[in-house]
Amino acid sequence: MSNAHTLIIVGASGHALNVHFLAERLDVPIKGFLDDNPETWGNEILGSVVLGSIDSWIEHSECQFIVAVGSPRVRRRIVEQMERLGSPNYATLIDPAAVASGRKVTIGAGSVICAGAMLTTQISLGKHGVINRNATVGHDAQMGDYVTIAPLAAVSGHVTLADLVEVGTGACIRQGVTMAPGSMLGMGGVLTQNTDDNAVMVGNPARLLRHLPSI
């Protein structure tokens, strides 16, 4: 991301704090936060002010934006909310302590790659993805839009993570496995089989716990 653009972080808790930390590491100017909780408006968080509601992004359209919410489904809902008013300019933030710019690695707009993450080669990540701290992604992995990979997760080679997939902290995915749209692998889970749409998988080896609402 060019330092010529000022960043606004959409969201004001949890993952938004990590994004603020990353932006400071990259020396990206931060204008503030946006959040739909009116109780946060005008508050200062980490030295940056909550400027107003998410819809007020249109008043700051000269800025770049990161939708900094951990949940893939909520992140998509916020992006869709913003895009009903126009076409925001989304930033892409890659921590200098991540390895994510190697040969044939593509990263979609609005994505965040945190410190210690490693993406090796021939990997694609769609828009508004999150690869969190010390997560690893192996060769030939294909990841859709709004994918979230939590800290310390390990995604093997030739894995496919469809849109809105979430991989929990410390979880592992065997080579060649496909996670279908909207599915989730719980913290510490070890996934050795393909999943159904919207399936929540837990345990070692991971088994179906329940299904989330259709996306």
UniProtKB/TrEMBL annotation:
Alphabetical keyword list: Repeat, Transferase
Keyword Zinc-finger: no
A Pfam short name: PglD_N
InterPro entries: AcTrfase_PglD-like (IPR020019), Hexapep_transf_CS (IPR018357), PglD_N (IPR041561), Trans_hexapeptide_repeat (IPR050179), Trimer_LpxA-like_sf (IPR011004)
PglD N-terminal domain location: 7-81
Gene3D superfamilies: 3.40.50.20, Hexapeptide repeat proteins
Keyword rRNA processing: no
Highest taxon of source: Bacteria
Family affiliation: Belongs to the transferase hexapeptide repeat family.
Identification of the protein by name: Acetyltransferase
Organism: Duganella lactea
Lineage per the UniProt record: Bacteria, Pseudomonadati, Pseudomonadota, Betaproteobacteria, Burkholderiales
